[in-house]
Amino acid sequence: MRWRCFGALLLLSACNMSGDGQGKDSPEHGTQPSSLEQAAIDAGVIPDVRNMNLSGAFERRSDLGEDRFCAVGNDEHGYQVGLLAVFGPDSKCEAMGSAERVGENVRITLDGKEKCTIVASFDGVELQFPGDLPQSCKSYCTARASLDGVSFYLVGEGDAVARSTRGREIENLCPGG
């Protein structure tokens, strides 16, 4: 079964890279999935990101520490978010801000120090930051830390779970919504 799922995902990836050059986020296509993608959603092979809510707690653990992201709110009114990316005991990025979903992307705005805008991808399970963020995003990090390429995995859905997310200097990363 695992190989069938892998094959379906591989085929889906190939189909997304080919075609008429019109992405699924183009005005003509809106956010409607292709027929193959819809079949994979219906079969439960991939999640339907259009029906996924960003509200929840996300984590990623490594030898350096535990990275955390949380979002409180909804697609209609937007989200209040917080994040902690750890690079050792004294090296980290930590911030709070707001976010809005745009199709399969999440536009995150950190505005406590310098304004930092991040357009992250969200597949319903993983939230992935791009590898080359604006210089202003470094204002939320200590000397040898960066938000470039950081990713988080959904560990709990809903505002209540998100509100329990703790930071280092920011006690509660997602206090409300």
Question: Would you give an account of this structure?
Answer:
The protein has 177 residues and is α+β, with helices and mostly antiparallel strands. The protein has 2 domains: 2-18 and 30-46, no CATH class; 56-163. Helix content is 16%, strand content 34%. It has 3 helices and 8 strands. Strand 1 and strand 2 (65-74) form a beta hairpin. 27% of the residues are buried. The model is unreliable at 1-6 and 8-30 (pLDDT under 50).
How is this structure best summarized?
The protein is α+β, with helices and mostly antiparallel strands. It has helices spanning 2-17, 35-42, 159-163, and strands at 56-62, 65-74, 78-86, 92-102, 105-110, 116-122, 126-128, 151-157.
- The SS-based structural class is alpha+beta
Number of strands: 8
Helix percent band: 10-25%
Largest beta sheet: strand ordering: 1-2-3-4-5-6-7-8
Number of domains: 2
List unreliable stretches of 5+ residues: 1-6, 8-30
The whole-angstrom Rg is 17 Å
User: How much β-strand is present in the residues?
Assistant: 25-35%
Instruction: Calculate the terminal CA-CA distance, rounded to whole Å.
Output: 41 Å
* Secondary-structure element pattern, one letter each: HHEEEEEEEEH
Describe the main β-sheet briefly. 8 strands, antiparallel, barrel
Average of the residue pLDDT scores: 81
> Any idea what the shape is?
globular
Q: Helix tally?
A: 3
